[in-house]
What does this fold into?
Amino acid sequence: MSKLKRNERVGALVKILCDNPNEIYTLNYFTNIFNAAKSTISEDLVIVKKLMEDLKLGRVETIAGASGGVKYVPDMNLQNTREALNEICEMIKDNRRIIPGSFLYMSDLIYNPAYVRKMGKIFATKFMNKNIDYVVTVETKGIPLALMTANYLNIPLVIVRNDNKITEGSTVSMNYVSGSTGKIQTMYVSKRAIKYGANVLIIDDFMKAGGTAKGLLDLMKEFDAEVKGIGVMVATREPEEKLVDGYLPLIILDRVDDKKGIRLSPNEVLFN
Amino acid sequence: MSKLKRNERVGALVKILCDNPNEIYTLNYFTNIFNAAKSTISEDLVIVKKLMEDLKLGRVETIAGASGGVKYVPDMNLQNTREALNEICEMIKDNRRIIPGSFLYMSDLIYNPAYVRKMGKIFATKFMNKNIDYVVTVETKGIPLALMTANYLNIPLVIVRNDNKITEGSTVSMNYVSGSTGKIQTMYVSKRAIKYGANVLIIDDFMKAGGTAKGLLDLMKEFDAEVKGIGVMVATREPEEKLVDGYLPLIILDRVDDKKGIRLSPNEVLFN
It folds into this structure.
């Protein structure tokens, strides 16, 4: 390939780094594909770092040492976080979403990449420095959000199943009490899905009593895993006392009522 | 914000466009955030277009007219497609993946963002010009791949359920014969998940006889939806005659045998 100009290299560096968040690239990798000197690439990277900071689009970090290089660290700034959550709250506040039994229809939001991309980025930003090895969720509705979070953290996703599936091989199971039905259920995860002693982040779409999260917490103990955080898209205000502590909701749901309507708001903690 | 230099604007344009594939941005949007003239942004975009083409990183397209602007269209080039599929095939060819009953353990691959990102991009590249409104999958194992495909196409994902869930509201159901178990099962999708007359792309992780895909095809008829394509990560070589036609597998699986091992290869059609 013919030599690129500086502004072309800068654009290409941004593309490659941001397409693969938290992936470390060596300077050699770039000197090869751009057919340019190390000093040239270093100068390009200074420009990339500055523009990311100036426009609050995330950070480009340099890692020193033998296995060193540069990587892009996604960062959802406060303004974008606020805008995204306000937009999502406005969309949820539509009485046509109310389903008999005071449930909320949210599948259109929680399966739409445009929204889960943003919410996944918020969780990734919050849990970036926790050295997390796996994002863990239980099927089905939390999977898209959990995958996007794992995507920005650049780590594997683990999906816990509600049935013992043949394709998972040998599994570890855990009984839990579902908050919405009050029934005892069992969750299963492949024994080979999680290395012993790992750090995990639990992500789910909805939390009422916290029964599912508690089940996941107990299941993780069977792998000697440390749960470094629990992120949920929507948590109900009531019951205030949940079965788990220290969870981080993006949105707090006060009320779903056929007549009085839906009341909810972004979790203000995220803006401090 | 102080005025940016050209190479900073180019980097920022790449970041914003590529973070939101297939999302149309007006020139005004960029003149505002960069505090620059339209003519300046137009020149920047010429550079962005050229570097994308030169490095085969996708395309930046201009849409004329009142609702016009520019958008980034992801494009997985042949070399990257080949490299990604070869790498995934090598990882699957590990006898420790064989589960009693000649099943393959693949959860680590099909839930890992690093791999589903690439495979989703391949599907998005193949079905980009089909005017697709929704990506449709059935829970659970195909969800990550389907979400990433929907992400690059910038369209909603629809998840068909194996049980009739209260949070889906009124549902439409379809009976189908599962290829792996031979049993009749029922799938359900919310009535409000798909607009009548839409174009859909079906994505799943695995196809043997094609029973699940056939069920989805029949279910889509209930919405007067046109199925514009069926993409599966892995299809078995046998039975050659599937219950559906015109599906596109990324990988073709010849054999899973405890003694003889695993034989599979990328679908050569993708390289033509």
